């Protein structure tokens, strides 16, 4: 027996992106159904942002105390692993979504649990755990917010060793004795930092020549040096050839291209080698679209060629970050409401209906020690785009607020300046606790604030934000 319902908008995927789309359209006077096959709140709440940062926070706090003479004397023991894991569990509500489901109901959104597939124009069929079907018809729009999932590369035997993906790495109940991390991007570096601090012997295998390949080179170099200083074995140029289990051990065969292959042994292996869109088996073929890959969307997140369908968040591949998914949700929700009510949708740059920050002003933080906080273009991307630019660097340790923050503070601030318009294209901070410096850079980049104007944004003394003045002085020469 099939239950049939009609809503103005059907949102598939109840992660933070889907929750925000549904909330915005309901606030705009439309009705909405929110469909979820797993936990309401999605990846960020249970297997990504929240648990990973909870795992890292204790290590950050200890490092901060040890970095200040006088305070360091108070650090007389080691991190309590079980207490850290228990605190992590508290931030995931022990993987219960009762609280978030209550929020959905309170927001006036109907929650439908089950696996969803498109079934032609504006129709979504949801199959519940008991096999019952619910057919949801959308009067105005369907928003696909199904996100992304870990990609496991086609390495011989890798799937057979039951590897961790980021989900298992952030939710593990015990510290692995030896952890082999495949991939030196954001997830690989953060999880190497976390589990090493909690007692695991960690090896990082990165195929490229630098960690954090998409960041400024100084960032990857600084994180690699810090990981090595913490006892992590960081292997660059390491191509994984195969994996196998021998009893309780995982054996990973690696080649650096110069000598014979080497075997790395561990108790667990984490695959942190990228993501792929969750677009397989959701019925895209029923509306004339390919069944795999990221969705091609316009500036209002509308899927090209299918005007009633929206692809919001990781599913479109534009910026795979929680905060950018929520940003896109605000833009898509506003556009859906406008179109449903007959209002004009302005698709010019920086209008309330379009997503442009997810290409020009994307902020991100890597919560290693040192942290890497960045927004906008790196110098390499600015060069690739052909934009006239100049790179300005300043050592963060030379700022009075930094030396007060931590003894022997080391870090770097990098600004990529458009030399024709004299505005910032991108900013990167590398150093302890630089995440809190980032939003001022986001405002400057997204607002295209002229450098001449930034001279009048006076940083308080003595704070780390004084680095802004030093960057401007360096720019002026």
Strand content: 25-35%
Largest beta sheet, briefly? 7 strands, mixed
Query: How many domains?
Result: 3
Structure classification: alpha/beta
> From the coordinates shown, what is the CATH architecture of the largest domain?
3-Layer(bba) Sandwich
CATH topology of the largest domain: FAD/NAD(P)-binding domain
Radius of gyration: 24 Å
- Low-confidence spans: none
What does this structure look like?
The chain has 15 helices and 21 strands. It has 477 residues and is α/β, with parallel strands linked by helices. It has three domains: 2-41 and 97-149 and 276-357, 3-Layer(bba) Sandwich (FAD/NAD(P)-binding domain), CATH 3.50.50; 159-274, FAD/NAD(P)-binding domain (3-Layer(bba) Sandwich); 370-476, FAD/NAD-linked reductase, C-terminal dimerisation domain (Enolase-like, domain 1), CATH 3.30.390.30. Strands 1, 2, 3, 4, 5, 6 and 16 form a seven-stranded mixed β-sheet that branches. Helix 1 (16-27) packs parallel to helix 9 (322-340) and helix 3 (49-66) packs across helix 7 (186-197). The termini are far apart.
């Amino acid at each position: 027996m099939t239950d049939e319902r009609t809503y103005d908008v059907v949102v598939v995927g109840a992660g933070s992106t889907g929750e925000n789309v549904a909330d915005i359209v309901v606030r705009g006077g439309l009705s909405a159904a929110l469909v979820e096959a797993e936990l309401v709140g999605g990846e960020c709440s249970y297997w990504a942002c929240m648990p990973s940062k909870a795992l890292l926070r204790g290590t950050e706090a200890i490092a901060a105390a040890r970095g200040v003479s006088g305070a360091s004397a108070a650090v007389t023991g080691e991190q309590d692993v079980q207490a850290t894991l228990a605190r992590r569990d508290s931030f995931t509500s022990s993987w219960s979504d009762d609280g978030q489901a209550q929020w959905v109901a309170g927001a006036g959104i109907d929650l439908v649990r089950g696996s969803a597939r498109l079934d032609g124009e504006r129709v979504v069929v949801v199959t519940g755990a008991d096999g019952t079907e619910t057919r949801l018809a959308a009067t105005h729009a369907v928003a696909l917010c199904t996100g992304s999932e870990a990609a496991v590369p086609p390495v011989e035997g890798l799937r057979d060793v039951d590897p961790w993906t980021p989900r298992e790495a952030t939710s593990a109940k015990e510290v692995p004795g030896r952890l082999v991390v495949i991939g030196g991007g954001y997830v690989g570096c953060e999880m190497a930092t976390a589990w090493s601090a909690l007692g695991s012997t960690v090896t990082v295998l990165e195929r490229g020549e630098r960690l954090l390949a998409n960041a400024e080179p100084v960032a990857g170099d600084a994180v690699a040096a810090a990981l090595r200083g913490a006892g992590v074995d960081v292997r660059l140029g390491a191509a994984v050839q195969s994996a196998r289990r021998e009893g309780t051990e995982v054996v990973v065969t690696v080649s650096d291209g110069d000598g014979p292959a080497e075997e790395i042994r561990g108790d667990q292996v984490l695959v942190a080698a990228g993501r792929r869109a969750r677009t397989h088996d959701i019925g895209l073929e029923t509306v004339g679209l390919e069944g795999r890959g990221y969705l091609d969307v316009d500036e209002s997140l509308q899927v090209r060629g299918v005007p009633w369908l929206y692809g919001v968040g990781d599913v479109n591949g534009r910026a795979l970050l929680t905060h950018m998914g929520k940003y896109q949700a605000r833009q898509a929700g506003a556009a859906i409401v406008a179109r449903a009510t007959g209002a004009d949708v302005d698709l010019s740059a920086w209008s309330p209906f379009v997503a442009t920050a997810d290409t020009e002003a994307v902020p991100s933080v890597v919560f290693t020690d040192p942290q890497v906080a960045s927004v906008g273009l790196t110098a390499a991307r600015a060069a690739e785009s052909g934009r006239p630019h100049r790179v300005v660097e300043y050592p963060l340790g030379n700022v009075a607020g930094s030396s007060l923050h931590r003894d022997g503070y080391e870090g770097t601030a990098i600004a990529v300046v458009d030399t024709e318009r004299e505005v910032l294209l991108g900013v990167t901070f590398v150093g302890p606790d630089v995440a809190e410096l980032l939003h001022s850079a986001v405002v400057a980049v997204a607002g295209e604030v002229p450098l001449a104007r930034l001279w009048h944004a006076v940083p308080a003394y003595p704070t780390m934000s004084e680095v802004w003045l030093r960057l401007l002085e360096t720019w002026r020469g």
